[in-house]
Amino acid sequence: MPESKGRSKPAYTPPRTAQSRVTKPNPRWFVPLMLALMLIGLVWVVTYYISGAKEYPLPEIGRWNLGAGFAFMMAGFLMTTRWR
């Protein structure tokens, strides 16, 4: 019975990798701003609760003071995802 010829295999070539993205460090102001936003939000919410929801921080927006405080905190926490 005749034998079949085997296929010649090419030499191993590693798979192509996309050009690695060089991650640049954050600017010097990034971390202080991130921490400041979280602290401003915390102080905003605490001030709202301590004042009895009457006068501080902004009386004309009422309960939206909680939303404003949490928005500051959320902005700070979202910045932590970009921190290198």
**Unreliably modeled segments:** none
Total beta strand runs: 0
Alpha-beta classification: mainly alpha
Tally of DSSP helical segments:
2
Sum up the overall morphology in one term: rod-shaped
Helix content: 40-55%
Largest sheet, strands/sense/barrel: none
| Strand residue content | under 5%
Cα end-to-end separation: 66 Å
The overall pLDDT, averaged over residues, is 87
Q: What value does the Rg take, in angstroms? A: 29 Å
Quaternary structure = single chain
Provide the succession of SSEs.
Answer: HH
Describe this structure as you would to a colleague:
With about 80 residues, the protein is mostly helical. The protein has a domain at about 30-80. The chain has 2 helices and no strands. The chain has helices spanning about 30-50, 65-80. Helix 1 (about 30-50) packs antiparallel against helix 2. The protein is rod-shaped, with a radius of gyration of 29 Å.
What does the secondary structure layout of this molecule look like, with pairings?
Layout: H1 30-50, H2 64-80
Helix pairs in contact: 1-2
Briefly say what this structure is.
This protein is an all-alpha fold and 84 residues long. Helix content is 45%, strand content 0%.
List key phrases describing it.
rod-shaped; single chain; 84 residues
